Structure prediction request, 161 residues.
Amino acid sequence: MSGIVSGFRSSRIPLLVCALALLMPGLPAIAQPPPAEPALVRDADDPQLNWGACPAFLPAGCALAVLHGDPAADNVDVFLRVPGKSYLPAHWHTSAERMILVAGEMHVTYEGQEPLVFRQGSYAYGPPGRAHEATCVSDTPCVLFIAFESPLDAVPVESAR
Prediction:
């Protein structure tokens, strides 16, 4: 009889292994914690955006709205809004900038490069530490989405126009 019992036990092991294998793919999804923060959408004309002042060297009427993150920490996203026909003096950032122009038209000159034209929907990359100046050439305000990798800063260049 011990042969029958041992045969029965050994035939149950593969069934148990198969049953566990079928259940395993669902376990990682169940075991993962829920996301820590909700997904979001922000429009540049959203009345609930909290627009704050820009650094003093930037033009009057310039405003910043934090969209996601903490300006004092890594990975912060902002909208920058400047009045039409305004000039942003030469400055640089510790972080690289990844930008999309949301409204207006802007001409930006990075040190050592020909001017770049940003039109609505344009993507631009600004290297860290590279001085640049800009002009919102449109009559309407320019709104620029900017993603910073490092904490937000803007350091004026003394030899600005």
Notes: Helices lie at 2-23, 26-31. The radius of gyration is 27 Å.
